Automatic annotation (TrEMBL):
InterPro entries linked: DUF8168_C (IPR059012), DUF8168_N (IPR059013)
Native source species: Methanolacinia petrolearia (strain DSM 11571 / OCM 486 / SEBR 4847)
Name of the protein this chain belongs to: Uncharacterized protein
Upper taxonomic lineage: Archaea, Methanobacteriati, Methanobacteriota, Stenosarchaea group, Methanomicrobia
A Pfam family of this chain: DUF8168_N
UniProt domain DUF8168: residue ranges: 8-103, 124-236
Amino acid sequence: MSEKNYTYIFSGKVFPERANVNYSKLNMAIKWKDYHIKGMVSILLSQITARFSCDKKIVDILTFRNIVSELIRFMVDTVGYTNGCGYDIEITSCIDSEDNITIFGVNIENDIENFSKQRPCGVPEIIQLANSEYGPYLRFSFSDLRESIKNPSQTGFFCFRAIESLRQYFVIKYSLRDHQSWEKFRNCLNIERDKIDYIKNFSDPVRHGNRIHITSKERLKVMADTWDIVDNYVEYGLQNLKQCNSE
């Protein structure tokens, strides 16, 4: 009796779609944990199709999606390198051989409503910080938060850089050196050092040109902790603005 194979078909897009990116079928093999995965990727008119098979059922589909996304991103970045263009990709869905369909969201937990309720305030309040002394650092931080969602394999790098952007406020404001500014940052925002160090552990290898494996569970913790830190900075800035306006 032949062994059962599990099939996973991912779909996605290359952006901007008007670029009309094409890449003929590329066969590839993935070694991940005790999985031995084989498959192919093709891009036609900027539409991505990736088909993989494995002799075992893959339980952590989100981490698998991240691995597939990283491979396809490298393919597309290679095309961009050769023709001097900048592309982005998005893997939007997966269907397996048991007809299970997974639609990947654009946010962290596929639960935008509940996630937004965890934030300390809404968009109008945060925009008040845009033209204040807190704004420039927050803009850099938000751009890195966006990239941390779009680039799963580099989540730690972008999350830590988002935090470093906020720390620069204290560097400039109080003319502090590296160690002093971190201490001031943690004290003013009431942040435990362990939380920052955990994120940094997933950033340092990438910052130095290396790579690090991150599971979907680890990635979720890194992002949740980072968002908590940014929340504290937003609250800190709004409280100080309110105090200044009342004087």
